[in-house]
Hints:
- The structure is a single chain.
- The protein is mainly α and 340 residues long.
- The chain has two domains: 3-198 and 304-334, Rossmann fold (3-Layer(aba) Sandwich); 221-298, Tyrosyl-Transfer RNA Synthetase (Orthogonal Bundle).
- It has helices spanning 3-6, 22-38, 48-51, 58-74, 91-101, 106-110, 113-124, 135-138, 140-150, 163-179, 221-229, 248-256, 259-271, 276-303, 305-334, and strands at 9-14, 41-46, 83-86, 155-158, 188-191.
- Strands 1-2-3 form a three-stranded parallel sheet.
- α11 (221-229) runs antiparallel to α14 and α12 (248-256) crosses α14.
- The longest helix has 30 residues, at 305-334.
- It is elongated.
Amino acid sequence: MSSKAAAKTILTGVKPTGAPHIGNYIGAIRPALELAAAHEKSFLFIADYHALNAVRDPAALKRDSYEVAACWLALGLDPAKTVFYRQSDVPEIFELTQLLAAVTPKGLMDRAHSYKAAVDKNREAGRDADADVNMGLYTYPILMAADILAMDTDIVPVGKDQVQHIEFARDMAGYFNNTFKEAFKLPEYRLAGETGAILPGLDGRKMSKSYGNHIPVFIDSRARRKLVMKIVTDSKLPEEPKDPDNNTIFQIYAQVADASGVAALREAFIKGGMGYGDAKQKLFDALEQAFEKPTAIYNDYMADTKKIDALLAQGAERARGEARKTLSRARAATGLNPLR
Ligand code: TRP
């Protein structure tokens, strides 16, 4: 990482959606943690107001937010370095949303992929185009722009599906800056999906909760072992040579074991003499090494969510400090009073 990149501000929002599996960890969480660690200023927040557009169960919203917080903390997020907060704890973001709404053309929202997808789905089902579309979903990109612009963000690591949202945030910042005066920094996206690997699941297809072929990150050792033993293999005998690049056990192992272990297993597969049973044991050991401790930390946080509340409250204070500066500048640019 060059020192120039490191001096930039990086920000990520995560929606609170259930417990992660190791595919999520390898593909999204680990790369985001690495980026956060490599940048001087980093922000990571729980996008609970975004979740609220769809969640209607208060207990679920609360629990999911704790789970996602415990997850990132257990996997190595350093809350002393990265500003870690709940979106809903930073009211300045919502005021900023209103300032941005004033310069955002309605047509921009009409073009948003997520809104268009909802409309298409309704049309296909023969329903009214806007059935079940609330204003939170419709204006989702404005809130997301406020999340980003509030912290003077340079870089937003995202998956492909979120690229349009970052472009919209740039658009909105540009409208505002041109209409009034320079108040917002223009953010850029960084495709995170390309650094993170795609992990196969137990049956060899992409690991996904919807396929039911996933290995959750936070499970006890017995459950972890049971899942590893379920990985589907062909019927090659131990002595036969095997292709590591077409092998689910190896592919998962390659993402969690250290380099010398990975090289050794690759060689053993190619040479022959490495049976699937032994390889599964190696994989299990590597997964234990990677996730046993995080699982204990995760369970501790979930057993004492006050600790999570305390950390997120500290993060919110820091985030509000940043957001107040931006908001005050933007208010003043429009002719509204700056914040006192
Ligand atoms: N929309 C993102 C998602 O669905 C979550 C999100 C909300 C976000 N605000 C953000 C991501 C700001 C990056 C920056 O995954």
